[in-house]
């Protein structure tokens, strides 16, 4: 049998600061633009976001202190463990060393509470009483419901109707923490009523749910909006993952040759990879690889252009890789990765060749996840399986070349609420959903026109 | 906000020995009896159990060494954290200090792998290739499937048919780890065929599933049977919970006035309470309180008598508290607590007044679990909610009396696979299932006759 290497840190190692990658990027990030094509100002954001979060969104400071109240909550599950995957290495027969940072230890079961807790805190101290948000698969909605209960804030979650019906257990979990969960589109918002007027049987989409949550926050003084990925401040909060991981690897005298993370909106990528970026800029050999689904290939097939964050066009325009804001990705079981756009920071770093994205198909990810579960015990979330598939390919390549590389990845969450997907895979009912090429091309031709800045991939 | 007190131990503190409470019991345990009323011999058990496990079942040694191979697997999630429930204390306004030992950190989500890993190991080194077992709610089946995948053993799980149909996600998890899961009753065993002949629509029961799994193991040389509670060796393996907890409390200079644990077959009770028993014998003031459901009140309403462990009568006779082997408890959502009997060790210690059992009704346990989830973040398993309800009552009593007692309990697992129960509770669809008094009385009058030893409560 293999020994277990589980690298733990004590509470004194919960990071005291979030790391702001903007301070170390070769080029400043492109500004968000308003409907008039002009850069938006902080004032325009504080209508729906807490002032401290807007300040973080725009900050160029390298280190931003984490309030003690937030660190106290983090300590419920942090520092999270870093594992050496001895048993997976043995199963693959690879000379590579594989490490995984396990974020499923949070009460919500993923890395999402790292930002949810911070967002709830800053809204609490800003005097806000209610938070609105959207959720697809339910990971972010769960995280915010948990954070709301910790700080005594009301939480309303617009949950995409098809998920609301198909994933009742994530909904029950949010309700257990006291949140109100609505099947979107609702009749409570203009955006929802519009969608229902077009199609009374509308199954909902993340785009519509975002519009509903933003509209509610914009119309109520006691309510702010929160988002679980994409934005700079969300990725900022997640950098505690990579900071802890660096320390844990130091304890065993190791450093990664390559880092993989699943990529939907970019919060995992920012979390694990940004804290290694300065090393890379300083000449260190390290590959940083976001892994996305081939069915929603934003970074690998999208255009680098200004686009909306939602389908309706209520958000600012962001310069990012996008499949077009009206592209609807096929239904796959890694719901957290079904987003037409991506974080502007992750996009820019890909554009500049600092991150190197790749895409993997659905069936391979479940095969990889099951191999991982049998070897390492933990049943991964379908999102995490994307990283695992990339890791296995890299480790098998090392087997061929004989290189004993050090491979690191984020196991972003457990799959306890995704067993229906595993069940379908085991019963041979899953396929490699391909996107309709014609729809993708149509969506890409429907990007908003922004004078002099829209560029092509 | 409250600080978080999470007391961690490093891997050097994973216990090196299991603690055998028999060495410190005031009276030796009553022997198991065969069908002829005579004590059974080790030889009679090795037909379906690994020899090392039979030796542990019968051992009177105080300390039994844990093989390094087992400790290596334990280290995937152990030592498990001990938390001080500051936020729950504040929510209750109690002067009491509340600690909980969280066993939901295992990949299977409960304390069950503590014994499953040990049982799989001893069967592996005995040359066994396959393990059979039964599962109701799925906690034990999951744990054994995980352990089987770690040691390369085939696992077949007879899952009570009604659970198989109503809880497909636990089943999918077992299959993800490579186990074969069958809806019991099956047509593969005599016990199953008998049940189906009586009732082709038979929804199954834990008793029938045990009979099927035992029958399979008895009929195949390459296959052994495993059980997730009740037996001495299972409780023995769980004592690592209490051993770790003692060390963790020492680190913060504390000691419990009272300990609560949910009680079905007794593995939680043995795990957390047995390591405190010698202190109590030495005069230390400590209350040890198993908590069971009022709908299946084995310890509080059963008879102390020799009875079978299964419904069909294939197991040895054990002197224990029992509701009668043909008593079928009402369907409640804490499936792990629906057992007609109880561990012989736990029963004897209750009979002798060393443990003091109590029972709580279902609705109160869900109310308690939701209060806990909102305060502490973790959504508990319905079984664990029984302990939480007792803890809350004790803490509120402390509020009345002003006593700053130290209360400890086992949070035996998370509720990720039990959200349908929370959903029903939140929708007002749950009731306090009462057992049919007539059925209970009938079952109690149907206890097997054993010359000179059957006693009444």
Overview of the structural elements:
Two copies of one chain form a homodimer. Chain A is α/β, with parallel strands linked by helices and 457 residues long. Chain A folds into two domains: 17-65 and 123-233, Rossmann fold; 69-109 and 234-446, Rossmann fold. Chain A contains 19 helices and 15 strands. In chain A, a hairpin with an 8-residue loop joins strand 12 (303-308) and strand 13 (317-322). The longest helix of chain A is centred in the middle third of the chain and has 20 residues, at 232-251. The first copy, chain A, is globular, with a radius of gyration of 21 Å. The N and C termini of chain A lie far apart (49 Å). The interface between A and B is large, with 47 and 47 residues.
- Poorly predicted parts of chain A: none
Write down the overall geometry of chain A: globular
Distance between the termini of chain A: 49 Å
Supply the CATH architecture of the largest domain in chain A. Answer: 3-Layer(aba) Sandwich
The side-by-side strand order for the widest beta sheet of chain A comes to 1-4-5-15-10-11-14
What is the CATH C-level name of the largest domain in chain A? Answer: Alpha Beta
Largest interface: A-B, 47 and 47 residues
Q: Helical percent range of chain A? A: 40-55%
Main attributes?
homodimer, 457 residues, alpha/beta, Rossmann fold, 40% helix, 16% strand, globular
